[in-house]
Amino acid sequence: xxxxxxxxxxxxxxPVMQAAARMLEDLNVSWEARVVSAHRTPDLLATTMQEAxxxxxxxxxxxxxxxxxxxxxxxxxxxxxVFGVPVPSKQLKGLDSLLSxxxxxxxVAVGTLAVGEAGAANAGLLAAQVIATTDPEVRKQVQAFxxxxxxxxxxxxxxxxx
Length: 162
What we know:
Layout: E1 4-8, H1 14-26, E2 31-35, H2 42-53, E3 59-65, H3 70-76, E4 82-87, H4 95-102, E5 111-112, H5 117-132, H6 136-157
Parallel strand pairs: 1-2, 1-3, 3-4, 4-5
Helix pairs in contact: 1-5, 5-6
Function: Catalyzes the conversion of N5-carboxyaminoimidazole ribonucleotide (N5-CAIR) to 4-carboxy-5-aminoimidazole ribonucleotide (CAIR).
Keywords: Isomerase, Lyase, Purine biosynthesis
EC number: 5.4.99.18
């Protein structure tokens, strides 16, 4: 398995979650994506976490919409850090997903990111930052990304806005 495992409750979550994969690719962090449903395949969820713990996985990113139980259920089965990405739903635009993921009971930690693609991209960045604490090559990539972000702002600040 890769360093980061991206899980989602259904294939329809991929348009949002691929932003995490793109960020990880940009930072040269290996990743793997799978569909695992907290409600429809709970046995697969438990097995997936056992496999992740026995492999090179360092961080799990979980995208979920609606009831959004996937990140919390994953966290219940592992010591690995789990970052939850609320996937927008048709009915409540992701507010339901956000509240489901962020309201974890004390003792079961899930880092919750923003709703949608920005949250997925930041989950990828945050996963890379965790890996960068022990991997000098990833640290260089994260630092280069930060420098690029800084330079974009400086370049934009010099525009003639009249």
